TrEMBL record:
UniProt-recorded Gene Ontology molecular function terms: hydrolase activity
InterPro entries with a match to the protein in the record: AB_hydrolase_fold, CocE/Ser_esterase, Galactose-bd-like_sf, Xaa-Pro-like_dom, Xaa-Pro_dipept_C, Xaa-Pro_dipeptidyl-ppase/CocE
Gene source species: Rhizobium oryzicola
Cell division as UniProt keyword: no
One Pfam family it belongs to: Peptidase_S15
Protein name: CocE/NonD family hydrolase
Keywords, ordered alphabetically: Hydrolase
Residues spanning the signal sequence: none
Span of domain Xaa-Pro dipeptidyl-peptidase C-terminal: 303-545
Superkingdom of origin organism: Bacteria
Protein backbone atom coordinates (compact mmCIF):
# COMPACT_ATOMS: atom_id res chain seq x y z
CA UNK A 1 0.00 0.00 0.00
CA UNK A 2 1.45 3.33 -1.04
CA UNK A 3 -0.18 5.92 1.16
CA UNK A 4 -3.01 6.70 3.51
CA UNK A 5 -4.32 10.24 3.75
CA UNK A 6 -5.90 11.69 6.90
CA UNK A 7 -9.65 11.35 7.24
CA UNK A 8 -11.79 14.13 5.91
CA UNK A 9 -12.63 16.83 8.42
CA UNK A 10 -15.67 16.18 10.58
CA UNK A 11 -18.96 17.44 9.26
CA UNK A 12 -22.54 17.45 10.47
CA UNK A 13 -24.41 14.28 9.67
CA UNK A 14 -27.70 15.31 8.08
CA UNK A 15 -30.91 14.52 9.91
CA UNK A 16 -32.65 12.52 7.22
CA UNK A 17 -35.99 12.70 9.00
CA UNK A 18 -35.99 16.48 8.55
CA UNK A 19 -33.67 17.38 5.66
CA UNK A 20 -34.97 16.81 2.15
CA UNK A 21 -32.91 14.00 0.58
CA UNK A 22 -33.08 15.34 -2.96
CA UNK A 23 -30.38 17.98 -3.50
CA UNK A 24 -30.23 18.83 -7.23
CA UNK A 25 -29.09 22.21 -8.51
CA UNK A 26 -29.18 23.08 -12.21
CA UNK A 27 -27.67 26.05 -13.99
CA UNK A 28 -28.33 27.38 -17.47
CA UNK A 29 -26.17 26.03 -20.26
CA UNK A 30 -23.75 28.84 -21.25
CA UNK A 31 -25.14 30.84 -24.16
CA UNK A 32 -22.05 30.28 -26.34
CA UNK A 33 -22.63 26.52 -26.37
CA UNK A 34 -24.85 25.33 -29.21
CA UNK A 35 -27.00 22.22 -29.36
CA UNK A 36 -27.36 20.57 -32.75
CA UNK A 37 -29.15 17.33 -33.56
CA UNK A 38 -27.34 15.18 -36.12
CA UNK A 39 -28.29 11.89 -37.79
CA UNK A 40 -25.35 9.50 -37.89
CA UNK A 41 -25.51 7.02 -40.82
CA UNK A 42 -25.01 3.32 -40.16
CA UNK A 43 -23.71 0.73 -42.64
CA UNK A 44 -27.17 -0.87 -42.93
CA UNK A 45 -28.82 2.41 -43.96
CA UNK A 46 -30.48 3.46 -40.71
CA UNK A 47 -29.56 6.66 -38.85
CA UNK A 48 -28.95 7.22 -35.15
CA UNK A 49 -29.98 10.55 -33.66
CA UNK A 50 -27.42 12.40 -31.57
CA UNK A 51 -27.12 15.72 -29.78
CA UNK A 52 -23.86 17.62 -30.33
CA UNK A 53 -22.83 20.29 -27.82
CA UNK A 54 -19.97 22.54 -28.92
CA UNK A 55 -18.74 26.10 -29.36
CA UNK A 56 -19.13 27.24 -33.00
CA UNK A 57 -15.96 28.69 -34.43
CA UNK A 58 -13.76 27.05 -31.80
CA UNK A 59 -10.81 24.93 -32.94
CA UNK A 60 -11.46 21.26 -33.57
CA UNK A 61 -11.70 19.51 -30.19
CA UNK A 62 -11.74 16.01 -28.75
CA UNK A 63 -15.20 14.43 -28.48
CA UNK A 64 -16.73 12.77 -25.41
CA UNK A 65 -19.49 10.46 -26.62
CA UNK A 66 -21.86 7.94 -25.12
CA UNK A 67 -25.32 6.55 -25.86
CA UNK A 68 -28.46 6.33 -23.77
CA UNK A 69 -31.63 4.23 -23.67
CA UNK A 70 -33.38 6.98 -21.70
CA UNK A 71 -33.72 9.64 -24.41
CA UNK A 72 -31.01 12.16 -25.27
CA UNK A 73 -33.49 15.06 -24.97
CA UNK A 74 -34.83 14.12 -21.54
CA UNK A 75 -33.20 16.50 -19.10
CA UNK A 76 -35.76 16.17 -16.30
CA UNK A 77 -35.52 12.45 -15.57
CA UNK A 78 -33.64 13.24 -12.38
CA UNK A 79 -37.07 14.06 -10.96
CA UNK A 80 -37.97 10.37 -11.09
CA UNK A 81 -36.03 10.06 -7.87
CA UNK A 82 -38.32 12.43 -6.04
CA UNK A 83 -41.00 9.74 -6.26
CA UNK A 84 -38.86 6.62 -6.31
CA UNK A 85 -40.40 3.52 -4.67
CA UNK A 86 -40.36 3.80 -0.90
CA UNK A 87 -37.08 2.63 0.55
CA UNK A 88 -35.29 4.12 3.55
CA UNK A 89 -36.40 7.68 2.85
CA UNK A 90 -39.41 8.57 5.01
CA UNK A 91 -42.36 9.13 2.68
CA UNK A 92 -40.46 7.95 -0.40
CA UNK A 93 -37.83 9.55 -2.58
CA UNK A 94 -34.13 8.94 -2.81
CA UNK A 95 -31.00 10.21 -1.06
CA UNK A 96 -29.55 11.66 -4.23
CA UNK A 97 -26.72 13.57 -2.59
CA UNK A 98 -25.50 16.94 -3.84
CA UNK A 99 -25.59 17.18 -7.65
CA UNK A 100 -24.93 20.36 -9.64
CA UNK A 101 -25.37 20.08 -13.41
CA UNK A 102 -26.42 22.20 -16.38
CA UNK A 103 -30.04 22.12 -17.46
CA UNK A 104 -28.99 20.17 -20.59
CA UNK A 105 -27.50 17.21 -18.77
CA UNK A 106 -29.27 13.96 -19.61
CA UNK A 107 -29.50 11.32 -16.91
CA UNK A 108 -26.06 9.88 -16.05
CA UNK A 109 -24.45 11.57 -19.08
CA UNK A 110 -21.48 13.97 -19.20
CA UNK A 111 -22.50 17.57 -18.45
CA UNK A 112 -21.88 19.74 -21.55
CA UNK A 113 -21.92 22.79 -19.30
CA UNK A 114 -18.69 21.55 -17.73
CA UNK A 115 -16.91 19.80 -20.59
CA UNK A 116 -17.43 22.18 -23.51
CA UNK A 117 -15.88 25.21 -21.74
CA UNK A 118 -12.89 22.98 -20.99
CA UNK A 119 -12.22 22.34 -24.65
CA UNK A 120 -14.33 19.29 -25.51
CA UNK A 121 -17.31 18.46 -27.70
CA UNK A 122 -20.03 16.38 -26.02
CA UNK A 123 -22.15 13.98 -28.08
CA UNK A 124 -25.06 11.91 -26.75
CA UNK A 125 -26.57 9.25 -29.03
CA UNK A 126 -29.99 7.60 -28.69
CA UNK A 127 -29.83 3.81 -28.65
CA UNK A 128 -31.19 2.25 -31.88
CA UNK A 129 -34.99 2.33 -31.77
CA UNK A 130 -34.99 4.63 -28.72
CA UNK A 131 -35.55 8.37 -28.51
CA UNK A 132 -35.26 9.66 -32.07
CA UNK A 133 -33.00 6.92 -33.47
CA UNK A 134 -34.01 4.53 -36.23
CA UNK A 135 -33.48 0.78 -35.92
CA UNK A 136 -33.09 -2.50 -37.74
CA UNK A 137 -34.02 -5.23 -35.22
CA UNK A 138 -34.52 -7.82 -37.97
CA UNK A 139 -30.85 -7.62 -38.90
CA UNK A 140 -29.86 -7.41 -35.22
CA UNK A 141 -26.37 -6.09 -36.01
CA UNK A 142 -23.66 -6.39 -33.37
CA UNK A 143 -23.52 -3.25 -31.27
CA UNK A 144 -19.77 -3.15 -31.91
CA UNK A 145 -20.58 -2.37 -35.55
CA UNK A 146 -22.83 0.47 -34.49
CA UNK A 147 -20.02 1.97 -32.43
CA UNK A 148 -17.45 1.65 -35.20
CA UNK A 149 -19.81 3.56 -37.48
CA UNK A 150 -20.57 6.23 -34.84
CA UNK A 151 -16.93 6.88 -33.97
CA UNK A 152 -15.77 6.80 -37.60
CA UNK A 153 -18.39 9.43 -38.48
CA UNK A 154 -17.49 11.63 -35.51
CA UNK A 155 -13.79 11.50 -36.34
CA UNK A 156 -14.49 12.88 -39.83
CA UNK A 157 -16.35 15.97 -38.62
CA UNK A 158 -14.62 19.34 -38.92
CA UNK A 159 -15.25 20.14 -35.26
CA UNK A 160 -13.59 16.89 -34.08
CA UNK A 161 -9.84 16.74 -33.53
CA UNK A 162 -9.85 13.02 -34.34
CA UNK A 163 -9.54 11.94 -30.70
CA UNK A 164 -12.61 10.46 -29.06
CA UNK A 165 -13.33 9.33 -25.51
CA UNK A 166 -16.35 7.94 -23.70
CA UNK A 167 -17.86 8.62 -20.28
CA UNK A 168 -21.07 7.88 -18.43
CA UNK A 169 -22.76 6.04 -15.57
CA UNK A 170 -24.64 2.72 -15.34
CA UNK A 171 -26.27 2.01 -18.75
CA UNK A 172 -24.02 4.72 -20.19
CA UNK A 173 -21.10 2.82 -18.70
CA UNK A 174 -22.26 -0.52 -20.09
CA UNK A 175 -22.16 0.73 -23.67
CA UNK A 176 -18.49 1.61 -23.21
CA UNK A 177 -17.61 -2.02 -22.50
CA UNK A 178 -19.01 -2.82 -25.95
CA UNK A 179 -17.56 0.09 -27.90
CA UNK A 180 -14.05 -0.44 -26.54
CA UNK A 181 -13.77 -4.16 -27.31
CA UNK A 182 -10.78 -5.09 -29.42
CA UNK A 183 -10.31 -4.19 -32.11
CA UNK A 184 -11.57 -0.84 -30.85
CA UNK A 185 -12.13 2.02 -33.32
CA UNK A 186 -8.78 3.71 -33.92
CA UNK A 187 -10.14 7.13 -32.93
CA UNK A 188 -11.34 5.86 -29.55
CA UNK A 189 -8.50 6.78 -27.21
CA UNK A 190 -9.88 6.30 -23.68
CA UNK A 191 -13.00 5.46 -21.66
CA UNK A 192 -14.44 6.43 -18.26
CA UNK A 193 -16.85 3.62 -17.31
CA UNK A 194 -18.41 4.87 -14.06
CA UNK A 195 -20.24 2.22 -12.02
CA UNK A 196 -22.04 0.10 -14.57
CA UNK A 197 -23.18 -3.39 -15.40
CA UNK A 198 -21.48 -5.93 -17.56
CA UNK A 199 -22.38 -9.55 -16.83
CA UNK A 200 -24.86 -9.59 -13.96
CA UNK A 201 -27.48 -7.11 -15.07
CA UNK A 202 -29.43 -4.81 -12.76
CA UNK A 203 -31.64 -7.31 -10.95
CA UNK A 204 -29.54 -9.31 -8.53
CA UNK A 205 -28.46 -11.74 -11.22
CA UNK A 206 -25.10 -12.59 -9.74
CA UNK A 207 -26.61 -14.59 -6.85
CA UNK A 208 -29.30 -16.47 -8.72
CA UNK A 209 -32.34 -15.17 -6.76
CA UNK A 210 -34.72 -13.37 -9.15
CA UNK A 211 -35.51 -9.75 -8.27
CA UNK A 212 -38.69 -8.43 -9.89
CA UNK A 213 -39.26 -4.81 -8.85
CA UNK A 214 -36.31 -2.87 -10.26
CA UNK A 215 -36.52 -4.16 -13.88
CA UNK A 216 -40.21 -3.22 -13.93
CA UNK A 217 -39.51 0.26 -12.59
CA UNK A 218 -36.69 0.70 -15.10
CA UNK A 219 -38.94 -0.37 -17.96
CA UNK A 220 -41.99 1.67 -16.96
CA UNK A 221 -40.27 4.87 -15.82
CA UNK A 222 -37.10 4.99 -17.89
CA UNK A 223 -36.84 2.84 -20.99
CA UNK A 224 -40.47 2.26 -21.99
CA UNK A 225 -41.43 5.95 -22.39
CA UNK A 226 -38.45 6.49 -24.72
CA UNK A 227 -39.16 3.83 -27.33
CA UNK A 228 -39.24 5.43 -30.78
CA UNK A 229 -42.60 4.27 -32.14
CA UNK A 230 -41.67 5.62 -35.56
CA UNK A 231 -38.80 3.12 -35.72
CA UNK A 232 -39.00 -0.63 -36.29
CA UNK A 233 -38.62 -1.37 -32.61
CA UNK A 234 -35.63 -1.44 -30.24
CA UNK A 235 -32.64 -3.50 -31.16
CA UNK A 236 -31.06 -5.75 -28.56
CA UNK A 237 -31.18 -4.00 -25.18
CA UNK A 238 -28.23 -3.63 -22.85
CA UNK A 239 -29.31 -6.57 -20.66
CA UNK A 240 -28.79 -8.87 -23.65
CA UNK A 241 -25.46 -7.50 -24.80
CA UNK A 242 -22.45 -9.82 -24.72
CA UNK A 243 -19.80 -8.37 -22.44
CA UNK A 244 -16.17 -9.42 -22.23
CA UNK A 245 -13.96 -6.90 -20.47
CA UNK A 246 -10.90 -9.08 -21.05
CA UNK A 247 -11.04 -7.84 -24.65
CA UNK A 248 -10.50 -4.17 -23.77
CA UNK A 249 -6.99 -2.74 -24.04
CA UNK A 250 -7.43 1.04 -24.43
CA UNK A 251 -6.79 3.33 -21.42
CA UNK A 252 -9.59 3.21 -18.85
CA UNK A 253 -10.49 5.19 -15.74
CA UNK A 254 -12.98 2.96 -13.91
CA UNK A 255 -15.11 4.01 -10.97
CA UNK A 256 -16.32 1.16 -8.76
CA UNK A 257 -17.92 2.08 -5.46
CA UNK A 258 -18.68 0.27 -2.22
CA UNK A 259 -22.03 2.10 -2.16
CA UNK A 260 -23.72 0.56 -5.20
CA UNK A 261 -24.12 -2.96 -3.84
CA UNK A 262 -27.55 -3.61 -5.30
CA UNK A 263 -26.51 -2.72 -8.83
CA UNK A 264 -22.92 -2.21 -9.94
CA UNK A 265 -20.37 -2.90 -7.20
CA UNK A 266 -19.73 -6.52 -8.12
CA UNK A 267 -19.53 -6.02 -11.88
CA UNK A 268 -17.40 -2.89 -11.95
CA UNK A 269 -14.72 -4.15 -9.55
CA UNK A 270 -14.70 -7.34 -11.61
CA UNK A 271 -14.23 -5.34 -14.80
CA UNK A 272 -11.18 -3.58 -13.38
CA UNK A 273 -9.53 -6.88 -12.46
CA UNK A 274 -10.21 -8.44 -15.87
CA UNK A 275 -9.67 -5.55 -18.26
CA UNK A 276 -6.55 -5.98 -20.41
CA UNK A 277 -5.62 -2.29 -20.55
CA UNK A 278 -2.04 -1.47 -19.67
CA UNK A 279 -3.17 2.01 -18.60
CA UNK A 280 -6.00 1.52 -16.14
CA UNK A 281 -7.03 3.25 -12.93
CA UNK A 282 -9.60 2.44 -10.27
CA UNK A 283 -11.43 5.24 -8.45
CA UNK A 284 -13.38 3.95 -5.45
CA UNK A 285 -15.71 5.73 -3.04
CA UNK A 286 -18.60 5.02 -0.66
CA UNK A 287 -20.81 8.01 -1.32
CA UNK A 288 -23.79 8.74 -3.53
CA UNK A 289 -23.10 7.65 -7.09
CA UNK A 290 -24.21 10.73 -9.00
CA UNK A 291 -22.83 13.15 -6.43
CA UNK A 292 -19.43 11.57 -7.05
CA UNK A 293 -19.64 11.51 -10.86
CA UNK A 294 -20.55 15.21 -11.02
CA UNK A 295 -18.49 16.28 -8.00
CA UNK A 296 -15.97 19.09 -8.44
CA UNK A 297 -12.94 17.01 -7.46
CA UNK A 298 -14.07 14.03 -9.52
CA UNK A 299 -14.64 16.18 -12.61
CA UNK A 300 -11.13 17.58 -12.35
CA UNK A 301 -9.82 14.03 -11.96
CA UNK A 302 -11.73 12.84 -15.04
CA UNK A 303 -10.61 15.88 -17.03
CA UNK A 304 -6.94 15.31 -16.24
CA UNK A 305 -7.32 11.73 -17.48
CA UNK A 306 -8.95 12.80 -20.75
CA UNK A 307 -6.53 15.70 -21.22
CA UNK A 308 -3.72 13.16 -21.18
CA UNK A 309 -5.20 10.63 -23.57
CA UNK A 310 -7.41 12.78 -25.81
CA UNK A 311 -5.41 16.02 -25.91
CA UNK A 312 -1.95 14.49 -25.61
CA UNK A 313 -1.07 16.57 -22.56
CA UNK A 314 1.91 14.67 -21.18
CA UNK A 315 1.84 16.69 -17.98
CA UNK A 316 -1.75 15.69 -17.12
CA UNK A 317 -2.70 12.78 -14.89
CA UNK A 318 0.89 12.05 -13.92
CA UNK A 319 1.93 10.00 -10.88
CA UNK A 320 -1.62 8.87 -10.25
CA UNK A 321 -1.85 5.70 -8.15
CA UNK A 322 -3.45 2.80 -9.94
CA UNK A 323 -6.02 2.37 -7.18
CA UNK A 324 -7.69 5.02 -5.03
CA UNK A 325 -10.27 3.93 -2.41
CA UNK A 326 -12.26 5.42 0.45
CA UNK A 327 -12.20 3.31 3.61
CA UNK A 328 -15.03 4.18 5.99
CA UNK A 329 -15.37 4.29 9.74
CA UNK A 330 -18.98 5.40 9.38
CA UNK A 331 -21.34 6.95 6.86
CA UNK A 332 -19.32 10.16 6.41
CA UNK A 333 -15.99 9.50 8.11
CA UNK A 334 -13.40 7.92 5.85
CA UNK A 335 -9.74 7.89 4.85
CA UNK A 336 -8.37 7.70 1.32
CA UNK A 337 -6.07 4.77 0.59
CA UNK A 338 -3.95 4.40 -2.55
CA UNK A 339 -2.34 1.24 -3.83
CA UNK A 340 -0.76 -0.42 -6.85
CA UNK A 341 -3.49 -2.96 -7.55
CA UNK A 342 -6.85 -4.40 -6.62
CA UNK A 343 -7.34 -6.41 -4.48
CA UNK A 344 -4.89 -4.48 -2.34
CA UNK A 345 -1.47 -6.18 -2.33
CA UNK A 346 -1.29 -5.95 1.48
CA UNK A 347 -4.38 -8.11 1.96
CA UNK A 348 -4.36 -11.21 4.15
CA UNK A 349 -7.49 -13.35 4.30
CA UNK A 350 -8.44 -14.39 7.81
CA UNK A 351 -10.84 -17.21 8.57
CA UNK A 352 -13.64 -16.66 11.06
CA UNK A 353 -15.51 -19.85 11.97
CA UNK A 354 -19.22 -19.76 12.66
CA UNK A 355 -20.35 -20.99 16.08
CA UNK A 356 -24.11 -21.57 15.97
CA UNK A 357 -24.25 -22.56 19.65
CA UNK A 358 -22.80 -19.24 20.90
CA UNK A 359 -23.97 -17.05 17.96
CA UNK A 360 -20.34 -16.04 17.51
CA UNK A 361 -17.46 -15.86 15.06
CA UNK A 362 -14.10 -17.27 16.12
CA UNK A 363 -10.59 -17.38 14.71
CA UNK A 364 -10.37 -20.94 16.05
CA UNK A 365 -12.42 -23.85 14.81
CA UNK A 366 -15.11 -24.48 17.41
CA UNK A 367 -14.95 -27.80 19.23
CA UNK A 368 -18.64 -28.65 19.33
CA UNK A 369 -21.11 -29.13 16.49
CA UNK A 370 -24.37 -27.20 16.31
CA UNK A 371 -27.19 -26.45 13.88
CA UNK A 372 -29.60 -23.54 13.59
CA UNK A 373 -32.56 -23.27 11.17
CA UNK A 374 -33.92 -20.51 8.98
CA UNK A 375 -37.33 -20.90 7.36
CA UNK A 376 -38.40 -19.90 3.88
CA UNK A 377 -41.47 -18.07 5.21
CA UNK A 378 -41.88 -15.16 7.64
CA UNK A 379 -40.09 -12.50 5.58
CA UNK A 380 -39.06 -9.67 7.84
CA UNK A 381 -39.36 -11.74 11.01
CA UNK A 382 -36.31 -10.85 13.14
CA UNK A 383 -36.66 -14.18 14.93
CA UNK A 384 -36.09 -15.93 11.60
CA UNK A 385 -32.55 -14.59 11.23
CA UNK A 386 -29.27 -15.97 12.51
CA UNK A 387 -26.51 -13.68 13.79
CA UNK A 388 -22.84 -14.34 14.53
CA UNK A 389 -20.72 -11.69 16.28
CA UNK A 390 -17.01 -10.91 16.56
CA UNK A 391 -15.87 -8.08 18.86
CA UNK A 392 -12.52 -6.59 17.85
CA UNK A 393 -9.73 -6.36 20.42
CA UNK A 394 -7.44 -4.34 18.13
CA UNK A 395 -8.21 -1.78 15.39
CA UNK A 396 -8.86 -3.75 12.20
CA UNK A 397 -9.41 -2.62 8.62
CA UNK A 398 -11.16 -4.91 6.15
CA UNK A 399 -10.83 -4.00 2.47
CA UNK A 400 -11.88 -6.26 -0.38
CA UNK A 401 -14.09 -9.28 -0.93
CA UNK A 402 -15.57 -11.42 1.83
CA UNK A 403 -16.68 -14.99 1.17
CA UNK A 404 -19.04 -17.13 3.23
CA UNK A 405 -18.82 -20.91 3.10
CA UNK A 406 -21.83 -22.67 4.63
CA UNK A 407 -22.79 -26.26 5.21
CA UNK A 408 -26.56 -26.41 4.88
CA UNK A 409 -29.27 -29.04 5.12
CA UNK A 410 -32.75 -28.51 3.70
CA UNK A 411 -36.03 -30.02 4.87
CA UNK A 412 -39.37 -30.09 3.00
CA UNK A 413 -37.70 -28.52 -0.05
CA UNK A 414 -34.93 -29.16 -2.55
CA UNK A 415 -33.64 -25.59 -2.53
CA UNK A 416 -32.96 -22.62 -0.26
CA UNK A 417 -32.55 -18.85 -0.57
CA UNK A 418 -29.82 -17.31 1.56
CA UNK A 419 -29.41 -13.58 2.16
CA UNK A 420 -26.29 -12.45 3.97
CA UNK A 421 -25.44 -9.13 5.55
CA UNK A 422 -22.35 -7.86 7.35
CA UNK A 423 -23.15 -5.09 9.82
CA UNK A 424 -20.99 -2.92 12.06
CA UNK A 425 -22.01 -2.42 15.69
CA UNK A 426 -20.32 0.30 17.74
CA UNK A 427 -18.97 -0.14 21.25
CA UNK A 428 -22.34 0.98 22.68
CA UNK A 429 -24.34 -1.60 20.73
CA UNK A 430 -25.65 0.77 18.05
CA UNK A 431 -25.65 -0.05 14.35
CA UNK A 432 -23.22 1.98 12.23
CA UNK A 433 -24.71 2.81 8.84
CA UNK A 434 -23.17 3.36 5.41
CA UNK A 435 -24.39 4.53 2.03
CA UNK A 436 -25.43 1.66 -0.23
CA UNK A 437 -27.84 0.96 -3.11
CA UNK A 438 -26.55 3.58 -5.56
CA UNK A 439 -25.72 5.66 -2.51
CA UNK A 440 -29.45 6.26 -2.15
CA UNK A 441 -29.84 4.13 0.97
CA UNK A 442 -28.28 6.01 3.88
CA UNK A 443 -28.75 3.08 6.25
CA UNK A 444 -26.89 0.33 4.46
CA UNK A 445 -24.72 -2.46 5.90
CA UNK A 446 -20.98 -2.97 5.51
CA UNK A 447 -21.63 -5.44 2.71
CA UNK A 448 -24.06 -8.10 1.60
CA UNK A 449 -24.63 -11.04 -0.70
CA UNK A 450 -27.26 -13.57 -1.68
CA UNK A 451 -27.52 -17.08 -3.15
CA UNK A 452 -30.12 -19.52 -4.39
CA UNK A 453 -28.55 -22.79 -3.28
CA UNK A 454 -29.47 -24.69 -6.44
CA UNK A 455 -27.26 -22.18 -8.31
CA UNK A 456 -24.25 -22.97 -6.08
CA UNK A 457 -22.02 -24.38 -8.83
CA UNK A 458 -18.86 -22.28 -9.14
CA UNK A 459 -17.04 -21.07 -12.23
CA UNK A 460 -13.81 -22.94 -11.56
CA UNK A 461 -11.76 -20.85 -13.99
CA UNK A 462 -12.56 -17.57 -12.27
CA UNK A 463 -13.25 -18.47 -8.63
CA UNK A 464 -10.85 -18.00 -5.74
CA UNK A 465 -11.32 -18.80 -2.06
CA UNK A 466 -11.90 -15.13 -1.31
CA UNK A 467 -14.05 -14.44 -4.39
CA UNK A 468 -16.24 -17.36 -5.42
CA UNK A 469 -17.82 -16.72 -8.83
CA UNK A 470 -21.09 -18.51 -9.50
CA UNK A 471 -21.61 -20.32 -12.79
CA UNK A 472 -25.42 -19.76 -12.83
CA UNK A 473 -25.85 -21.71 -16.09
CA UNK A 474 -27.24 -24.83 -14.40
CA UNK A 475 -29.40 -25.73 -11.41
CA UNK A 476 -28.64 -28.58 -9.03
CA UNK A 477 -31.45 -29.38 -6.55
CA UNK A 478 -30.45 -30.19 -3.00
CA UNK A 479 -31.28 -33.52 -1.36
CA UNK A 480 -33.39 -33.09 1.78
CA UNK A 481 -31.57 -34.37 4.84
CA UNK A 482 -28.16 -34.25 3.12
CA UNK A 483 -25.55 -31.66 4.16
CA UNK A 484 -24.33 -29.59 1.20
CA UNK A 485 -21.53 -27.02 0.91
CA UNK A 486 -22.45 -23.66 -0.62
CA UNK A 487 -20.38 -20.51 -1.14
CA UNK A 488 -21.89 -17.03 -0.93
CA UNK A 489 -19.83 -14.23 -2.50
CA UNK A 490 -20.16 -10.87 -0.75
CA UNK A 491 -19.75 -7.48 -2.39
CA UNK A 492 -16.41 -5.67 -2.02
CA UNK A 493 -16.26 -3.20 0.85
CA UNK A 494 -13.80 -1.15 2.90
CA UNK A 495 -14.42 -0.63 6.62
CA UNK A 496 -12.41 0.05 9.77
CA UNK A 497 -13.43 -1.47 13.11
CA UNK A 498 -12.12 0.10 16.31
CA UNK A 499 -11.48 -1.66 19.62
CA UNK A 500 -14.77 -2.75 21.16
CA UNK A 501 -16.68 -2.60 17.89
CA UNK A 502 -18.38 -5.67 16.46
CA UNK A 503 -18.67 -7.31 13.08
CA UNK A 504 -22.08 -8.98 12.88
CA UNK A 505 -22.84 -11.64 10.27
CA UNK A 506 -26.56 -12.09 9.54
CA UNK A 507 -27.95 -15.07 7.64
CA UNK A 508 -31.62 -15.25 6.72
CA UNK A 509 -34.01 -16.42 4.01
CA UNK A 510 -35.45 -12.97 3.27
CA UNK A 511 -34.48 -9.40 2.51
CA UNK A 512 -36.85 -6.45 2.79
CA UNK A 513 -36.77 -2.66 2.25
CA UNK A 514 -35.77 -0.90 5.41
CA UNK A 515 -33.14 -3.43 6.44
CA UNK A 516 -30.54 -3.58 3.66
CA UNK A 517 -32.54 -2.52 0.62
CA UNK A 518 -32.41 0.96 -0.84
CA UNK A 519 -34.38 3.50 -2.81
CA UNK A 520 -35.23 1.12 -5.65
CA UNK A 521 -37.55 -1.13 -3.67
CA UNK A 522 -36.51 -4.74 -4.02
CA UNK A 523 -39.02 -7.55 -4.39
CA UNK A 524 -37.25 -10.86 -4.35
CA UNK A 525 -39.00 -13.88 -5.85
CA UNK A 526 -37.97 -16.06 -2.94
CA UNK A 527 -38.86 -19.63 -2.15
CA UNK A 528 -42.00 -19.99 -0.09
CA UNK A 529 -41.59 -23.36 1.60
CA UNK A 530 -39.07 -25.45 3.46
CA UNK A 531 -36.38 -24.79 6.04
CA UNK A 532 -32.62 -24.72 5.92
CA UNK A 533 -30.30 -25.67 8.79
CA UNK A 534 -26.85 -24.08 9.10
CA UNK A 535 -24.28 -26.55 10.41
CA UNK A 536 -21.19 -25.39 12.30
CA UNK A 537 -18.38 -27.18 14.10
CA UNK A 538 -15.45 -29.49 13.38
CA UNK A 539 -17.32 -31.77 10.97
CA UNK A 540 -18.93 -28.92 9.03
CA UNK A 541 -16.64 -25.88 9.41
CA UNK A 542 -18.83 -23.06 8.10
CA UNK A 543 -16.66 -19.96 7.89
CA UNK A 544 -16.43 -16.33 6.83
CA UNK A 545 -13.27 -15.23 5.01
CA UNK A 546 -12.42 -11.55 5.63
CA UNK A 547 -9.79 -9.34 3.90
CA UNK A 548 -7.52 -7.78 6.54
CA UNK A 549 -5.19 -4.88 5.69
CA UNK A 550 -2.13 -4.61 7.87
Amino acid sequence: MNAVTPSVEARREPNYLEDHPFDLETYSLPSDITLEEVLIPMRDGIRLAANVFRRPGAPAAPVIVTSTPYGKDNYDQWNNFRDAPVGNVPGGGFYLGSVRISDHTAFEAPDPGYWVPHGYVVVLVDHPGMGRSESNPTLDPPLEERWHDIISWLARQSWCSGSIGMSGVSALCATQWIAAKDPAPSALKAIIPWEGINESGPAGGYGGIPETAFPGWLKSQWIGPNVNHAAHGPERLLFDWKYDTTKISIPALICASFSDQELHTWDTFDAFTRIASKDKWLYGHRRQKWGAFYGKNELEYQRAFLDRFLKGDASAFQNQPAVRLEINNSRFDYVVVTADDWPLPATSYDTLYLDAERAALSADLVASSATKPITATHAGDPQNSLSFDLKFKTPTTLVGHMALKLFIEVQDSDDADIFVGIEKIDAHGNKVYFFSASGGNANGPVTRGWLRASKRRLNSARSTEWRPVLDLSTSSPLVPGQVTEVNVPLMPSGTTFQVGETLRLLIQSWSIPGQWEGGETRQWDTLKKGSCCIHTGPEFPSRLLVPVIS
